[in-house]
Amino acid sequence: MKIVAVNGGPRKGKNTDQMLDAFIEGVKSAAPDAEVEVIRLYDYAFKGCMSCFACQMEKNRDDLGCRIKDEVSDLLRDTFHADGIVFASPIYYCNVSAQLRLFWERLQYPGHSPKMIPTALIYTMNANEEQTEQFMGKPLELNSWYLEGCFGVKPEVVCSYDTFQYNDSERFNAAFREPAARKKALHDQKFTSDLRNARDAGTRLVHKIKEVQK
Questions:
Q1: Number of C-alpha atoms within 13 angstroms, CB side, residue 153?
Q2: Is the domain 2-212 a CATH 3.40.50.360 member?
Q3: Among 31, 62, 86, 130, which has the highest number of CB atoms less than 10 A from its own CB?
């Protein structure tokens, strides 16, 4: 079983990293022999779709066929042929990071993958649940719709709200800054539960993979 974990976050060891690590723990608990390839997008130089349509030519459909050759070309192919995929990203301007958007353009533009691939989405954000639904509900819903259309399975979605961004908030000119102590207390109350939800989602992904492979 091959699972690709695509990390669209820039900050190592922070919220998105921790949520993805917890998800992988869940995968490993359900499938100890699973191969998990982690792709940290900020480590690579690449660009988005050029709309050349090479990937949609019939001869290329089963092998992605992207004409752009850069540092993620082989990673895109690995992802397109995985048994399961998890995408993790912080939310910037009401959607995933620019790096993950670029990766998605080239991964999904060919259309349906050659097989059904269960997927999962991990979102981390400084907004609360109500704000997320009000301002980001539709974009995030469309992300799930696109993934289901490409890979044939409705994705798992795990959200971590009210994330803690920095310890010394008084140093920063943050428009919606809260006192650091209050923000950290709120985060500490919820983040343990968020990590547990991510682990559970990793376990469910393994079960979905086994189901579609029957």
A1: 25
A2: yes
A3: 86
- Identify the burial level of 80 via C-beta atoms within 10 angstroms of its C-beta, where 0-12 means exposed, 13-18 middle and 19 or more buried: buried
Contact 209, 84 (CB under 8 A): yes
Q: Tell me how far apart the alpha carbons of residues 144 and 154 are, in angstroms, rounded to a whole number.
A: 7
**What residue spans define the domains of the chain?**
2-212
Angle at 51 between CA 95 and CA 39, to 5 degrees: 50
pLDDT digits (tens, 9 = 90+) for 156-214: 999 999 887 766 666 666 555 566 666 677 777 789 999 999 999 999 999 999 999 98
**Closest by Cα among 21, 3, 4, 23 to 12:** 21
H or E stretch including 158? strand 156-160
Give the tokens for residue 102. 């670029």
Do 21 and 38 meet the contact criterion of CB atoms below 8 Å apart? no
Rounded to the nearest angstrom, the gap between the alpha carbon of residue 150 and the centroid of all alpha carbons in its chain is 15
Q: What pTM value is reported for the model?
A: 0.92
- The residue assigned the tokens 């998605």 is 104
| 149 pLDDT tier (thresholds 50, 70, 90) | very high
